[in-house]
Design brief:
201 residues; mainly alpha; Diphtheria Toxin Repressor, domain 2; elongated; DarP_sf; ribosome binding; cytoplasm; rRNA-binding; RNA-binding
Length: 201
């Protein structure tokens, strides 16, 4: 379930003519607190891609520097307070950015696993190279044969895996970074939302 779906489930539960119940407000507060903690735990490059106002960004970055347990706990509470002060559209932008980042992360993990499986198949049996070349005729067959042969020798002699790593990079260039490949990392940022302009009351 995405952040947006989870938040919508909370926002639309227990609604009445009198407005949200006390328990609903409490859950929404906890959800925002958790969202703030997720920002704190993001990788540095991912955090830079999340749209947020300056005061929240400063609170998050300060929290990331704190190592003492109690000091970090207090700063996390402050981050949560900043989250609760945001306009709904600002929270929505943060949620969409996080969902996009997670989607990119999952896709990248899947691509890496696919490359690792290809490498293992190529080292395990000669027929795998024939299959790869049939699917990707633009591949440099001689380069791949050389890397496979050298990687097998490395493994047999228990040498440092230089060719083993070079084979992975060659597969990445062929299957991921190739201009003809439908899976390019450049598409990742295109799905991130723009930070909305907050209207003055």
């Amino acid at each position: 379930m995405t952040h947006i779906q989870r938040f919508n489930r909370i926002a639309h539960s227990e609604l009445s003519e009198q407005g949200p119940s006390k328990s609903q407000r409490k859950r929404e507060s906890h959800a925002l607190q958790d969202l703030g903690e997720e920002l704190v735990n993001l990788a540095k490059d991912a955090l830079a891609r999340v749209p947020m106002p300056e005061n929240l960004e400063q609170a998050v970055r300060e929290c990331r520097k704190i190592t003492a347990h109690e000091g970090r706990r207090r700063q996390l509470q402050y981050v949560g307070k900043q989250m609760r002060s945001l306009h709904e559209s600002e929270v929505e932008a943060i949620r969409r950015a996080l969902d996009a980042i997670k989607g990119v992360s999952k896709a990248e993990t899947a691509r890496l696993h696919s490359l690792e499986r290809w490498r293992e198949r190529l080292l395990a049996r000669d027929e795998a190279l024939t299959e790869l070349l049939a699917q990707h005729p633009q591949a440099d067959a001689q380069q791949l044969r050389t890397l496979i042969r050298n990687a097998r020798r490395e493994q047999a002699a228990q040498k440092p895996p230089k060719a083993f790593r070079e084979l992975f990079q060659a597969l990445k260039d062929l299957l991921v970074n190739s201009p003809a490949s439908p899976e390019t990392s450049e598409d990742a940022d295109s799905h991130l939302p723009e930070f909305p302009t907050r209207e003055e009351d």
